[in-house]
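Two proteins, back to back. First:
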Amino acid sequence: MKKLWISVLVVLVVLPMMFQSSVKAATPISIIIDGVRLSTDQAPVMVNGRTMVPLRAIFEAFNATIKWDQKAQTVTATKDNTTIMLKIGSKTATINNKAVTLDVPGLNLKGRTMVPTRFVSEALGHEVGWNPKTQVVTITTSTSNVGNAGPVSNVVAQDVSDFGDGRDLQVSFTRAANESLVDHYRVLIVKSGNILNLSSAQTIASYNYSTVLPTGTNPSIKLTSASRSVDGDSIKSNQAYVAYVLTVGKGSNASTLSIGSSTMTLVNKTVAAINNVQVNDTSDYGDGRDLSVSFNKLSDESKISSYRIFVVKATNYSNFNLAAANNVSSANYTLVSKTGNNITQILSSGARDVDGALIKTGVSYRVFVMAMDSSNAANHVLSSVSSAITLSNIGVSNLNVSDVNNYNDGRDLRVSFTHATDETYISQYRILVVPTSYYSSFSLAEANNISSAYYTAVSTTGTTTNQVLTSSTRDVRGALIKNGVNYKVYILSIGSSNTGNVLSSPSSVITLLNDSSVSIVSNLSVSDVNDYGDGRDLRVSFTHPTDETYISQYRIMVVPTSYYSSFSLAEANNVSSSNYTSVSTSGSSTSQVLNSSTRDVLGASIKNGTSYRVYVLSIGSGIYWDSNALSSASSVITLLNDSSVKAVTNLSVSDVNDYGDGRDLKVSFSHATDETYINQYRIMVVPTSYYSSFSLSEANNVSSSNYTSVSTSGNSTSQILDSSARDVRGDVIKAGVSYKVYVLTVGSNNYSGSNALSLESSTITLLANKTPVVSVTNVTYKEEIGSGRILISFDKSTNESNISEYRVLVVPSKQGFGTADALAVNSSYYSSVIPNGTNRSTFTATRDVNGDSIVKGVKYKVYVLAVANNSGVQNGGLSNSTEEFEI
């Protein structure tokens, strides 16, 4: 055999072909291997009668292993038992360490290393032919007559999703008859109408097919969003495709191509559009409750999770599209569940337009409805726009009531109001007098059912009404109006034609009194004056009526706000004598600190931490014994022990990171000086769009999942919240939302009800503005001879200030790989390098990113990922890869 090699080489040296002194540029030279054209990035050229071809292309076509020594300019190729060594520029080569002479040495051409085609081919045992007329080199390898594992069968392509890309396509097939001869399968997606044969299938670039390794079972592969057809185009909806599978044999075993699948077209089965969006003005509250939205449900709701109603200012609706709808905050749309029926939804009083403004009268709106695809946000569907609507107000305004006489009936009550601006559809107004002891609120439905004997009708004549009721006027329950009863007055606007009735807001509470007898006190105020934790902490002050002739005493009544949204004269008259404090009529005013045994109107001892209002009941004497008069309520007061539970001070907030969640928000404050009776502090993040102010009572009721607890350890706290931190409404903290922060001091033991709320912080809106990390450059590799490992080196990032580490990643070259893939690699499968301001070199790697050992016969690439720290943003950071290599 060795003699044969030497003979062949001698023939190569002495056999003349064409005499040329320089590279020719005539008819392009083609190289055909076993009937398949060899594709190269540098065209073959003729030099001194010898065809020169890029070394990597020819050696890889023969499945030879190559090693390139850049420094020595030497290439070594090995296949089976044959090793060839060429030195660029030298006419001497070796075959299995035997020197042979070349008439044309290897050379560099336009950055590519070129070697003589005939010498390389025949040295590896292949037959070479040359046609000078057609400029074609034909090479016949020893594999042309080798058997194969046979093609796969039953290739089936299916549409399995609705992403509009390769993720929709799943390909399955029956494996080759003898997988022991199979190296791998290639799934090839071909546009319908295009022809694919074995020769063309073998030349397709690796990024235009999907690789499947033999496992002994019939494969089924779902493609990815990056998958492409064989011509390099992205896979997409509404394009017909045929799937083929190329079986690639091991070693010298030949490749085979399957029969194509049936033609299939990916269809994006998205949600159908919503139609018939209608809007109507149904009420007169001056907010979202006036707006009714109706639309036809989808005939097929199987893919729908819900609907969203978007109210858009008419001046902006032309700019509102699906992308804008997907970005609207959850606070600025109305969510409607699917019901199986056509939907009519009246919005709420807190409903907002897509800009975050409360819906109100006088503004022109248009409405969109979006159907939410439960499986894929990309498939949400936005309706066409409704007609424009401007909410009008047909209700009355400026409602006032006053006590004008002393008849002890309806003649004492004057009702004034301004008529609706547009009375076109109003037939009359009805004055409704409502006793507050029976109605904490009074609804439109109740107003519509009131008997005609129990209201006063007013015509639409004029622009205002100023009417004193009659002696026979009754309240809505049928009782005659009289002194000493607390009332509220409502006006019902009666719509004509198809316009609904509208109920006004209530008037202030009025209690008719006989000014010649019993009057209410004035200038009622309350204050926290001591720290006993009982009634001695509460001072009540008020001015007596000018005429006390028919008043026997005053009664101070302390009312817990948790039990009474309002407190009526009837309730005051029934309070037990042990549950109020009596005050004589002596003097013109009272300023009294209550005693330790004082109780509220329910009989509970007065204590710290409970919210109260105070009322004063004037008690009639003589013939006015049943004409008691109840004052208006004081402001709310919550008694606190100033020596125990104090609010924090020096509260400040800052934006410190860029995660888009609570980790961006740092909260700092000074602890209370004396923490003896303090259990903990609670950091509460309050969205300013929902709270113009935030009270102690609201803070006390915040769920434990919606604040951050801080211990009393230390004199101060400076804490960055965590990623799961939520605002007081339960929404995850995020960038772009305006917040204020409060800290609640929580009392312990006997002071558990004496919590104290801090002042608010300045307003803060978290922003995403950190610097992206910069990738490393010049990533290179070198084999560590004899060890099977590779050595990696690279130039550091130009900015390491926002980088926590570098990750060296070895990736099989056929595997798609991006930044998201790099971040997901298990920490056991990469080498971590800490930045220190210098370039990195000679870091060894023994495993690839899948955890597999780096082995011979597999091509790899190396990447380096720069990983962001808290000061940076992981927007990229993945280096370019090295060239493919094998060890």
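And the second protein:
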Amino acid sequence: MKETDTLKQLVLEALKDGVKLYCEKEAPNVSFADLRIRIEYSREESFGDYSTSFALENSKLLGKKPLDSAALLVGYLQAKTDLFEKVDFTPPGFVNFRISPSFLIRFLENTVQKKDLFPKLENPKKVNLEFVSANPTGPLNIVSARAAATGEAFANLLKAVGHSVDKEFYVNDYGNQVFLLGVSTMVRIREALGESSSIQENAEDGRSIEELLSQNVIPAEGYRGDYLNIIAKQLLENSNTEKEIKSHLEKKEYSALAEKCSRWTVESNLVWQKKDLDLFGVGFDRFFSETTLHESGKVLGVLENLKKSGKVFEEEGKQIFKSEDYGDDKNRVVVRDDGRPTYLLADIAYHNDKISRGYEKIIDIWGPDHHGYIARLAGAVQALGYPKENFQVIIAQQVNLLMAGQKMKMSKRAGEFQTMEDLLGYLGKHAKDVARYFFTMRSLDSPLDFDLDLAKDESDKNPVFYLQYAHARVCSIFREVGTNSDAKALENLEMTEERKRLLFWISRFPEEVLDAAATLEPHRIANYLQNLARAFTQFYISKNNRLKDSDESTRLGLARICQAVRVVLAEGLALLGVSAPERLEKED
């Protein structure tokens, strides 16, 4: 199946043919290339399946009133009887298209029944998709869960249309924040061994890090979550690490122990995060360690590449990247005056590594506090010679957990935050399906209110259960009457309004996948599936569509439609990472 083989594209091609005829007879002096020609879904189903505002958008160029142009254009399009059941126009100048049921049936047979549902792009790319990449300083939180669900859906969509996709998780296991994590764990270990401890309330109280270590104090910028108590206990239960810990403490080698605790804690948290991701049904092709970049010399090494671009200058002993040239609000230091690289240079080195691995498209999903970081990194990528349009950053906006209509608080450093594990545990046996759907049913770049009460509801008020009930209902029909169907019987089937509507929504699936993959908007699939399920419900409640009460020819034709519904629902849910069960407690 080619990219052009979607209903929307076929309608667009028919419109272009009609416009050419229109121009030849009505506007011979107008250049076809100058015209704006586009197709949209009709805002109201009563008007048709698709519409175009061609007459409105080109009225000045055509030199005609929109209604006059629309009326003339309709005349040139009505001849497309193999594609359109009806073409008409409505004020102030919209041309509306209703697809012929016979064409929908042929389209259905060539796509759904052959399971050729996903349009394949002519020039697929090798894509690196980085998402989640949560700091290994604690369990995955709710925003990370949202990024995980949506990132996995991105990958499914991109693969569906033919791209090669590698999913990557960047592990920030280097730097001061990781050392502070180790210090925080060491304090919990010493607490478990009977020492007293405290928390530094003010980072400006004058004590050095050495003093804080000797006094068993968690620095103000340290970590306080209860999960560190669990890790401390696990480390002490391991005889080898217990010996190392006690040896360092006896010698008062606090810095050395803190460094080791950093490594151990990062390893523990990464195991924890991988376990949560596995429970969530999200997998990665690679976990990339920041430490390996520093150890290999690639961080300082990429500075030479930047210098060759002429976008780095020295000032007061610092190496500074000209990020203002790329829309940043100021130029950014990449190497400090003491020779230490900044976080930005490490990130540039990481993306240079991606480029060196031959990726034609690099997509990152970042957290809600990274908006200001985009321009400087995107600029550095361009300075390295990578095309601007091939690097894309998408921000995963904040998630608000709602219970009884009230927002729940989150604070990672204080340990008062809801984790992915908390959420999955609360939602129970259907947690994966419900959470994956709820996180993908809204655009990633908008804040999400996650209604825990609705998510917990196992009735069809819950949107994911509504879709699963629809799939299970089709399966129950086939358990009752069998799975036989017939294409010829479908062709001979009388086309009632609810049957035509359902055929149209089934046939829209390939273009919805293509559009969702192009825009990286899996919520479009979620919205589409809801519309398909509603169309099926209207079909199902009609007495005319009761398969068990129909004659054989009608039953075989109706079964053909139901088979297509089942396939599309299952494939659509799979793109979102949601299962399509054949049985549920509520099927009717």
